Amino acid sequence: MTIQLDGPGVTIDEVVAVARQAATVELTAGAVDRMQAARDIVERFAEGEPKYGISTGFGALATVSIPPEQRKALQLALIRSHAAGMGDPVEDEVVRAMMFLRARTLALGASGARPIVAKAMLGLLNAQISPIVPEYGSLGASGDLAPLAHGALALLGEGEVHHRGRRRPAEDALRDAGLEPITFAEKEGLSVTNGTDAILGMLCLAAVDAAQLLTYADATAALTVEGMLATDTSFGADLQALRPHPGQALSAANLRTLLEGSALVASHTDDDPRVQDAYSIRCTPTVHGAARDTLDHVVVVAERELASAIDNPMVLSDGRIESCGNFHGAPLGFAADFLAIAIAELGAIAERRMDRMLDKGRNHGLPPFLADEPGVDSGLMIAHYTAAAMASENKRLAAPASVDSLPTSAMQEDHVSMAWGAVRKLRRVIDNVRRILAVEYVIAARAIDLRAPIEPAVATGALVSLLRKEVPGPGPDRFVAPDLERAEKLLRSGEPIRSLASVGVILN
Question: Is residue 15 over pLDDT 70?
Fold first, then answer.
């Protein structure tokens, strides 16, 4: 797959293709023309009045005038000094998304960098070279300064990279890939560091992962409905239409589709003493739907950012170069915090559902903890503990990062977004919830097996059959961790969606 990078029109799917699927990227002729036109403006200003980032220092040093003979050294010093991150490296997929998105901004022609700079970034991507970017260093304003500087070091042949499965000096990796280091001209050091590209890249990846989790959450909830001998009447379209939130309608429709024809649901239509199911079952479409609506908002924010020029100062087509605040990560930080809250609740309600399935006093005829021989066997008791631990951690991770700010750069940068922290913890919430849903998958499938000979629905039966290829059914206690890991791996692979499609079930 080759993506034609024109600047405008980049999609979330293209970000994912570059980050995770090693798609190659090429600049269009239109992008090259726009970049060159902006560069011509920068070079005219290089000999005129002082302009930030062209003939001055940076941040609180913006009042320091830099003579022409020192301006290339200024750009080099900027990259080296700003590459000040610490901690473990972030994931290569994040770095690839960041480099692609920074090239996207440059291609818009509002940054004043030469086309060679964007081409050099794409050269790294296409050669599968990922700069080492440490975990800590970004405050989300002025964008991702330290992460982007670590990425830019590799363009200079400095720093370290991941290449061919190992960590090595950037200079060696560039040479082996047939790439030449570049030298930054006026403004270019600023143009490659002053953006929200890593934050945006992570938000795009999180949005795709969250969409998958929402589908899985409906699927594991449907399994629990059957395992608990609960009812699907509260998911009816007429009831849902009385509260017309779009996400709620979609989640309820998924549950109805998954449970269609279920003998387990039909088995207790008559003579059931229960008047209604617990909130964690009956309110599933409400909670899952609210998370869906939150994700819809986040996608809109991400798409707007994908259409934005993120830099400072900006080079305008009428020949002006003006300072602005487009690098501030508040829109992305708010979105990431909001989504972390919503996705954490998917895990919270799932944890409550599985707790009911394991409790003999509330699981309607199943053995305690779904154990083979209760007392001798503990069944899936501690699997629930694991899910509860992650659900509890998610409550802490859901506390918003974007309400925090620490002034930096001698009070010049006196309000920062902390959006980097917001999106980093969002990714951890997503990983936790995937694991929580894997635990529910294992527990609910065992509950359904224990209801035999009553049969589940076609769709839920397909999900149980898929799991049984990797995880054995009920029986004496065994090493549980590998079962949970295999279930999580299934969810991560996307195989449950394909399994449902094989029996004609397509979910929203």
Answer: yes
- Range(s) for CATH 1.20.200.10 in the chain? 202-310+321-502
Q: Is 385 a catalytic residue?
A: no
Q: Which pLDDT does position 201 carry in this prediction?
A: 98
pTM value surpassing 0.85: yes
Asked if the 202-310+321-502 domain carries CATH number 1.20.200.10, the reply is: yes
What's the confidence (pLDDT) of residue 57? Answer: 67
* Torsion sign over Cα 146, 149, 153, 154: positive
Q: At a CB cut-off of 8 Å and minimum separation 6, what does 479 contact?
A: none
Cα–Cα distance between 308 and 143 in angstroms, integer?
Answer: 13
Measured at the CA of 429, the angle between CA 424 and CA 430, to 5 degrees, comes to 100
Residue-level pLDDT at 389: 98
Encoded tokens for 303: 């798409």
| 7-25 mean pLDDT | 96
Residue from 52, 216, 279, 385 carrying the catalytic annotation? 52
Question: Which fold is adopted by the domain 2-195?
Answer: Fumarase C; Chain B, domain 1 (1.10.275)
List residues bridging with 162 in a β-sheet: 130, 167
CA distance 412 to 241: 52
